[in-house]
Every structure is written in C-alpha cells, then in structure tokens.
C-alpha cells in the first residue's frame, strides 16, 4: 500500500509543478455582430481563426486588432495579464497553451457571440521562490 501511495505521489509531482507556472498571457477576443446566421458566425470564426494562426508574438494580436478596427470587421479587446498563474486558467485552456509555442495563439474558443484565443507572451516558468528542493 505504501508503494502505491508513493507511486501516486511521484506521478502527481510533475503536474503539481506545472500548476505553479506563471507567464504573461494575452487574451484576444472578438464580439460577433448580433443577428448573424449560423453560416455567417462560422465564416467570421474562420476569419478570426485564420488570422490568429499567423500570430508569432503577442504584438501580432495588436496588429490584427488594429486592422479589424480600421476595417470595422469585428469589435473586441486585447487583455494582457502579467505574471498569470497557470493554476488560475481552466485546465482545458492550460492544455491548449501547452500545445502551442510561446507567442502563438491557441485554437479559437468562446461562447455565444464571442470568440477568443490565448497567447503566452513569455515562457511559462515556475518562480524561483516556488521551486521545491530535494
């Protein structure tokens, strides 16, 4: 029984360390116009997805957002959160952030009328004061 508990504890340690990671995270969000048909929503989502797949650094989100504003294509916002704890991000989104390189956008997600991506602008790291020593 002790061996099983030890194995379980050791298996949990790497992910526990990952939960302590922190990074600067940008959320790029657009709002879809009211009254769009499902086909129009799908087309708008695909435009946003295609544009955000080109992001290679956080500043690219600002460039795309400025273009959207100039074209009056979408309204939305870009929110930067410095020193964000990964533990504060829903697990599904943490997994998405782990799939993409730093500076790249996650796949598009959202809810009715809103589409978002997240971008880790800095390499997620565990702060030195939170690293365990053995």
Q: Topology, please?
A:
Elements: H1 2-19, E1 22-31, H2 38-52, H3 58-71, E2 75-85, H4 91-99, E3 109-111, E4 114-120
Antiparallel strand pairs: 1-2, 1-4, 3-4
Keywords:
single chain, 134 residues, alpha+beta, four-stranded antiparallel sheet, elongated, disordered N terminus
Structure report:
The protein has 134 residues and is an alpha+beta fold. The chain contains 4 helices and 4 strands; from the N terminus they run αβααβαββ. The protein has a 4-stranded antiparallel beta sheet with strand order 2-1-4-3. Strand 3 and strand 4 form a beta hairpin. The longest helix has 18 residues. The two termini are 23 Å apart. The N terminus is likely disordered.
Query: Into which percentage range does the β-strand content fall?
Result: 15-25%
Class of secondary structure makeup: alpha+beta
N-to-C order of helices and strands: HEHHEHEE
Low-confidence stretches: 1-14
Distance between the termini: 23 Å
Query: Sheet bearing the most strands, described?
Result: 4 strands, antiparallel
Helical stretch count? 4
Strands ordered across the widest β-sheet: 2-1-4-3
Instruction: Report the mean per-residue pLDDT as an integer.
Output: 86
Residues in helix, %: 40-55%
Radius of gyration: 18 Å
- Give the CA-based shape: elongated
Topology, number of strands = 4
């Amino acid at each position: 029984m002790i061996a099983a508990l030890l194995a379980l504890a050791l298996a949990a340690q790497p992910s526990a360390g990952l939960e302590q990671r922190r990074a600067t995270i940008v959320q790029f969000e657009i709002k879809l116009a009211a009254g769009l048909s499902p086909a129009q929503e799908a087309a708008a989502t695909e435009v946003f997805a295609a544009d955000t797949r080109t992001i290679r650094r956080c500043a690219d989100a600002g460039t795309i957002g400025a273009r959207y504003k100039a074209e009056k294509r979408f309204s939305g916002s870009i929110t930067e959160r410095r020193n964000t704890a990964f533990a504060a991000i829903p697990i599904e989104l943490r997994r998405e952030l782990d799939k993409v390189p730093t500076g790249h956008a996650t796949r598009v997600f959202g809810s009715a009328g809103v589409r978002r991506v997240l971008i880790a602008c800095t390499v997620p790291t565990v702060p030195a004061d939170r690293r365990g020593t053995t």
